[in-house]
Amino acid sequence: MINNEEFQDEIGNNHISSSAKNPVRDDAFDISDDEKIERIKKDVENILITLGMDLTDDSLKGTPNRVAKMFVKEIFGGLNPLKKPNASTFENNYKYGEMLVEKNITVYSTCEHHLLPIIGRAHVAYISNGRVVGLSKINRIVEYYSKRPQVQERLTMQIVQELQIALNTEDVACIIDAKHLCVNSRGIKDIESSTVTSEFGGKFKNEQTRRELLDYIKLETKF
Q1: How confident is the model at residue 6 (pLDDT cuts 50, 70, 90)?
Q2: Which residue numbers are catalytic?
Q3: Binding-site residues, please?
Q4: Which residues are annotated binding-site positions for Zn(2+)?
Q5: Helix boundaries (H) for the chain
Q6: DSSP 147
Q7: For residue 95, how far is the Cα from the chain centroid?
Q8: Model confidence, pTM
Q9: Percent helix, strand and coil across the chain, each rounded to 5?
Q10: Judging by beta carbons within 10 Å of its beta carbon (0-12, 13-18, 19+), is residue 64 exposed, middle or buried?
């Protein structure tokens, strides 16, 4: 009989998500970023003191504040809906009808199970249905959804869904090839393995179209 703590460990160690959306509470933004930083600062201080670290040391005394600001302003900044990029689209006046692929987009995310980095590349493609999006907006969408505690499968889906809404087409695809430091630096400690996830919408569900996309990117991702 597996107990609740063992069950939770099994989910985390096997990197299984329990939700297709980021599990954010309704009151997540009832307090300001400054208040969040102060709360997290105290928690980080407690962790370091519990570990036996001397916070009077010049190298460590600023660490709680640095970590708190990093959590709120940087690596988890994508939790804040106010930071969502405006994916402005434009009419496809030049009538380009083939797939557009933006490949090797840098992914820096954080595993929600161990709060360790996920580092890799995203390859995003779409076929215009009369609208096009600025190339940098694709990168910004990837960055926005990456900057939160994540599961790679969910991140892949969120990128596709966001572009499908912006472009008013199902013909969007995303492939992510990434290393998880929760696998590479702890547990099995396999530094060579990476995880590949994909989400194919509309025409990309067609085998020939999907093969064309894979030929474009060739999955030659390097870290």
Answers
A1: low
A2: 111-114, 152, 180, 182
A3: 111, 114, 182
A4: 111, 114, 182
A5: 4-13, 33-50, 63-69, 135-146, 152-167, 181-184, 207-217
A6: S
A7: 32
A8: 0.88
A9: 40, 20, 35
A10: buried
